[in-house]
Amino acid sequence: MKISGNVCSKVDYCNSNICYNGECVNQPHGNKCVCQSGWQGPDCREDVDECKSDNPCVNGQCINSVGSFYCLCLPGHVGKYCEKKHLPEQQCTPNPCLNEGKCESIGNGKSTTSNNFKCTCKEGFKGPLCERIEDKCTDGSFHCFNGGICINNLTDNSSPACKCPAGLTGPLCEQDIDECEIYSGGLCENGATCRNTWGSYDCMCVGGFEGRHCEVNIDNCKDALCHSGSACVDGIARYECICTPDRIGELCEFENPCFGNNNKCMHGQCFPEPEAGNYTWENCDEDVNECDSNPCFKQGTCVNTQGSFFCECQPGYTDPLCMTLIRYCDTNPCQNGATCFDDLGTYHCSCLIGYSGKHCEVHSYHTTNNCDLPCQNGGICRSPLSDKCECLPPFEGTVCEFEKPNPCESNNCGNGSVCVPNKDYLSYFCQCPKT
C-alpha cells in the first residue's frame, strides 16, 4: 500500500517483477510467481526434470525437454505415457501422434516395429510423436525489444509473448507508457511536476523536497547555522533559529545587549537591533510633559506630574480626562414627586405645588390655582393639563426660574462647524458646513 498525503493506493509489485513462465500474483508485501506446468523457481525460469521423479512413461523411456517431457514408447505401445497398446495392423488407431499431430501409415502395415507410421506435426510442435514444442524464443524467429523477455506459450503453442520492463508496453515492448498522463499527476507529491521519460518518469521537486516522488521533506536543520544552544525548527526550504534569551539575530549569532546586567535602560524598555548586533536605548530619566498635548476635555486643567499627569475637571465633569458629565439626578435626590434637573456641577429639584426646599422635602400647605403660576422667562401655564409652566429653552423649573448652562460655551467643534445644543441642553452636536 502506497500512502500519498491522506490517500492510499494499491501498489502493483508485479509491474516491476517478471514471471517468465508463470503468472505474477500480488501479495501484501510483495509478489509471487505461480509457475506453469514444467517450470519452477522464484521467477519460473528453472525447467522441471520430470524424468528424475518416478518414471511417468509406463512402457517407454522418459526424455526431458524444456518445460515438459515426452516418452519414447516400446514397440507395441503408444500414448503420451506409452500407456496404450498398439498393434502393427492398427498403426494409426488410436492416433499415436500428440498435440493433434496427423498419423500416416507407412509400409504394408504388417511390420512388428514401432516405425510403421509417421506423424505430421502442427506448426509449433516437433518430435517423432509431435511431443515437443518448438522454442521460438531461442531459435531466432521471435524478438522482443528494449529488454523485453520472450515467453513461449506452452498451453496452445500460439505465438510467444513479450514480458515488458516497467514503463514499456506493446506486443514487442516497442511503446513507451506515459505514466504522467495515466496517473493524472498522482505520482508526484508536494507540488512536484511529473516529466515523462522513455520507459519511466521523473518527478521535478519544488524546493524543500526530495525522493523518487518528492515525498521526503528535506531536513534543513541538518546543515543549519544556528548558534550553539539555540533550537532549530525545520520548514519548507527554510529553517528558523529559536534563540535563548541571551542571544539575538537570525542565526542567534549576537549577544543580547538588553539581557541581564547589560540592560542600559533605567525606566524603560531596551530594544535590541539584531541586524546590527547592537541596540538602541535612552536612560528614560527625563519626564515627559503630557500637558503639552492638552489631553483634558471640557476646559479641564492639566497638571503634569513626574512620569504622569492628571486633569482638574470643571464642575459637572469627571473621569481621568474630564469627558464624562456627572448626572446627579441618577441618584434620585428629589422627593415628593419632584422633577430633578441636572446642571453643570449641580442639580435642582422642581417641586410639585405645596412643596418646597432643596429636595422638595418641605410641605408648605399652600394651594394655588394652576393658572395663577407666575411663569417666568416666556414660560406658559396650561391649566388643567399641568401644574407647572411649559418653559422655553434653556429655562426649566416649576415657573421656568432656572436657566441651564449653554453646553456650547466649551465649544469643541472644529473645521468651521457650528455647535448646536441638544434639546436637553446638557449636550451638543457639531453641524458641519455644507459643501
TrEMBL record:
Key words of the record: Disulfide bond, EGF-like domain, Glycoprotein, Repeat, Signal
Q: Which Pfam families match?
A: EGF, EGF_CA, hEGF
Mind telling me which InterPro entries this protein's record contains? EGF, EGF-like_Ca-bd_dom, EGF-like_CS, EGF-type_Asp/Asn_hydroxyl_site, EGF_Ca-bd_CS, NOTCH1_EGF-like, Notch_Cell-Fate_Det
Entry protein name = EGF-like domain-containing protein
PANTHER family linked: CRUMBS FAMILY MEMBER, EGF-LIKE DOMAIN-CONTAINING PROTEIN
Do you know which PROSITE patterns this protein is assigned to? ASX_HYDROXYL, EGF_1, EGF_2, EGF_3, EGF_CA
GO MF annotations in UniProt: calcium ion binding
SMART domains hit by this protein:
EGF, EGF_CA
Q: Which residues form the EGF-like domain?
A: 10-45, 47-83, 88-131, 133-174, 176-215, 217-253, 287-323, 325-361, 367-401, 404-435
Q: Which GO terms describe its cellular component?
A: membrane
Protein species of origin: Ditylenchus dipsaci
Record-annotated disulphide pairs: 14-24, 35-44, 73-82, 121-130, 164-173, 205-214, 243-252, 313-322, 351-360, 371-381, 391-400, 413-430
